[in-house]
Design a protein that fits this description.
Distance between the termini: 34 Å
Helix content: 25-40%
Number of domains: 3
CATH architecture of the largest domain: 2-Layer Sandwich
Number of strands: 25
Radius of gyration: 25 Å
Largest sheet: 11 strands, mixed
Strand order of the largest sheet: 3-7-8-14-11-10-9-22-25-21-20
Strand content: 25-35%
Number of helices: 16
């Protein structure tokens, strides 16, 4: 069993969820604070988790025909200001370089808050004809947004992300691209991170600055709050017109192309922590986990060590003998620490399975398999386990997704009155499905008075006549109200 002293050194979720989150991030050695205000240092284990989700998303992006590119970190002020609505939306968060090389710059440079402006300026020389379209680009980079309140992974001044930028000859093609981006995020969230999400449209007040509309995926964390997990934006011809991009279409008329952009960031590391974690630390989905199985050798004497090592070698060789087994990520912990310390160390880091092998296990040809999610123990013959382990990991992945789905469903409520919405949120966080008339005034009132935002207008929300939960005006469907990160 885990050491009580070690486990209780993490704040309990039920007592202080933000405190629990910070404890897990720091004590699982995922990230640390930086000397630069609001920035973080991502430690090796945290970066391995990011690399795993990054790699999976990158595979999806490339399958859809996009190519990776890179654009500069600095954006001239004149470019950022070309699209007025865009710059107005970002201006409070933009960090500016005003001096360089010991001199005052003639033109300020924005440290990239996002790349639409500089990309539009650059590609106007690349797009001359409909034959140059669609232009499908993706970039893995860092951005800076000067946040007032920061939290490791969830909201930092500098963060890592993916931003796709595309240009199309027709509105229909661009709209299909918006759906493509959201589908990539949905698949990664569900299949890799085991996070069930709601797909929907952002309200006009919540859409990306300068976009015609924004689609998103929204997830529920274990404290009932919402987290925006990815967004895909229809930019229309706004940025193209501002940058003077035109192409000669099939009808021999010059036109501005239609643009899209979509983004997914390191906040998703935080999403995994808050979707699956418990009072002992991380609980990682096997697909995502840098280590899927940790083997803890147990011995006292040198001859016992040799026998245990031989049994471990036979097991890992048997596992590697099949295509599925060779892909399993295993770590054998030979560090000079007690078994109890190792159990706690790897539990905190969320490794899906722990396999304990001691002298008695060697004699019996078995190992003690422990599941992180529920700490259930099972003595399993090592030969049998080598054959079964890939399937067990697949089942564990599906179990985490179902557990998160069940949690979300049990914390989703329908309400039909404003006071009911307020009282519900004050009593228990969750997703509150309520009617909304479409008025920005009603949306702002809910935000100001009860700190509830409309997370999205779900695509799968059935058409249903009702009364706006705020003002009582006619409404055609329910939307998701929640308090959010």
């Amino acid at each position: 069993m885990p050491s009580e002293g070690f486990v209780t050194s993490i704040t309990r979720q039920s007592e202080d969820f933000p405190g629990w989150y910070n404890d897990v991030v720091r004590k699982a050695e995922l990230a640390d604070y930086s000397p630069v205000r609001g920035c973080m240092v991502i430690r090796p284990y945290g970066f391995a988790i990011w690399e795993s989700m990054q790699g999976e998303l990158d595979r999806h992006i490339k399958r859809t025909g996009h190519s990776n590119v890179y654009f500069p970190l600095f954006v001239p002020k004149s470019l950022l200001e070309k699209e007025a609505e865009h710059v107005e939306g970002f201006n409070p968060q933009v960090a500016w370089v005003t001096h360089a090389g010991g001199k005052k710059l003639e033109e300020w440079l924005a440290i990239r808050p996002t790349s639409e402006a500089i990309i539009a300026e650059t590609v106007k020389d690349w797009i001359q004809s409909y034959r140059d379209l669609p232009l499908l680009m993706n970039s893995w980079n860092n951005v800076v947004r000067w946040e007032l309140r920061t939290r490791l992974f969830l909201r930092t001044t500098e963060f890592l992300w993916q931003e796709a930028h595309t240009f199309h000859a027709t509105r229909e093609e661009a709209e299909e691209e918006v759906a493509t981006g959201l589908d990539c995020y949905d698949r990664v969230a569900r299949d890799w991170l085991a996070i069930p999400v709601i797909k929907g449209r952002k309200t006009d007040s919540e859409k990306f600055a300068g976009a015609e509309y924004t689609w998103c995926i929204e997830a529920m964390m274990r404290d009932g709050k919402a987290l925006q997990a990815g967004t895909s934006h229809m930019l229309g011809q706004n940025f193209a017109r501002a940058a003077g991009i035109e192409f000669l279409d099939r009808d021999n008329v010059r036109k501005p192309p239609y643009g899209t952009s979509w983004g997914f960031s390191t906040r998703m590391v935080g999403a995994v922590i808050m979707t699956h974690g418990d009072d002992s630390g991380l609980v990682l989905p096997p697909n995502l986990a840098p280590v899927q199985v940790v083997i803890v050798p147990i011995f006292r004497k040198d001859e016992e060590r040799a026998a245990v090592a031989e049994a471990i070698d036979r097991f890992t060789a048997a596992l590697a003998s099949t295509p599925e087994g060779s892909a399993v990520r295993i770590k054998v912990d030979w560090t000079e620490e007690s078994p109890g310390f190792k159990y706690n160390h790897w539990e905190l880091r969320g490794v899906p399975f722990r396999l304990e092998i001691g002298p008695r296990d060697v004699a019996a040809g078995q190992g003690m398999l422990v599941r992180r999610v529920d700490r259930s123990k099972e003595a399993v013959p090592l030969e049998k386990l080598a054959a079964e382990l890939p399937a067990r990991l697949t089942a564990y992945q599906a179990e985490l997704l179902k557990r998160a789905q069940d949690f979300r469903d049990s914390n989703t409520y329908q309400v039909d009155a404003y006071q009911q919405l307020k009282d519900g949120l004050d009593e228990k966080a969750g997703f509150y499905m309520a009617h909304w008339c479409g008025s920005e005034k009603c949306e702002k009132q809910a935000s100001d008075e009860i700190s509830a935002t409309i997370r999205c207008i779900p695509f799968d929300s059935p058409k249903e006549k009702g009364k706006c939960v705020v003002c009582g005006a006619e409404s055609g469907q329910r939307v998701v109200f929640a308090r959010a990160y």
